[in-house]
Amino acid sequence: MTIPATPPPVPRPVPEQPAASVPEGTVRASVPLPVETSSGTVTARMLSFTGLHDGREHIALVFGGALAAVPLVRVHSECLTGDVFGSGRCDCGPQLREALDVLAEEGGVLLYLRQEGRGIGLYNKLDAYLLQDRGMDTFQANRELDFVDDPRDYRVAAQMLKGLGVASIRLLTNNPEKSRQLMDNGIAVDDIVGTGVFVRDSNTRYLQAKIRHAGHLIALPVPARG
């Protein structure tokens, strides 16, 4: 079987116009879920929603009892390669595991958004990997596939938080775009809590591109001089 070097692109979703504000989502089910963390198993609640503007099956994991007035929140976009298979091409898997550990200890909310590949989908992400292997960075590869740098839409995160009765948060992120979109959609971000820096040889160019193109707040170690 011959595999083409550059598969044909998967059709793009039609982008929606941004909204100044969004209605709250509605919790449709709350299910107890044992979650493995580095300190052991904790029971969180996995919540599903109705009324989300894109109709996708986003979920929330709520840790602890009653939420704090200003809970810690991690907004995490789905990454099958990193979250499930431990890919070293990105830092998504370590960020997810870090968030689970911190939220299990402190309490708070993980919003897991079905926005694979920074919103371009799994197959397109794999096509972007092929382009990166030819020298492009992750954002240049998006453009070559006729996508914007980062088409993710965090209105659904604001809807989910409103459905949980949360109006103000501490946001666990290194991506300023997340806080901007949440604030634009009615969620107050009282504090930014930086994620860890999960750098390895296989993802250094990826992290450098996130800093250069999207202003991510990542303090990469300075290489030692010989």
Would you give an account of this structure?
This protein has 226 residues and is of the alpha/beta class. It is 30% helix and 23% strand. It has seven helices and seven strands; from the N terminus they run ββββααβαααβαβα. A seven-stranded mixed β-sheet has the order 1-2-3-5-4-6-7. Residues 1-20 have low confidence and may be disordered.
Outline the fold blueprint.
Blueprint: E1 26-37, E2 40-50, E3 59-63, E4 72-77, H1 80-84, H2 92-106, E5 108-113, H3 122-132, H4 138-144, H5 155-163, E6 168-172, H6 176-184, E7 188-193, H7 204-214
Parallel strand pairs: 4-5, 4-6, 6-7
Antiparallel strand pairs: 1-2, 2-3, 3-5
What structural keywords apply?
226 residues; 7 strands; alpha/beta
Brief rundown of the structure:
Strands 1-2-3-5-4-6-7 form a seven-stranded mixed β-sheet. Helix content is about 30%, strand content about 25%. The longest helix is centred in the middle third of the chain and has 15 residues, at about 90-105.
**In which range does the helix fraction lie?**
25-40%
Major beta-sheet overview: 7 strands, mixed
* Spatial gap, N to C terminus: 47 Å
Mean pLDDT: 88
Please state the overall shape, judged from the principal axes of the Cα atoms. Answer: globular
Report the strand count: 7
Written as H for each helix and E for each strand, in order along the chain, the element string is: EEEEHHEHHHEHEH
Cross-sheet strand order for the largest sheet:
1-2-3-5-4-6-7
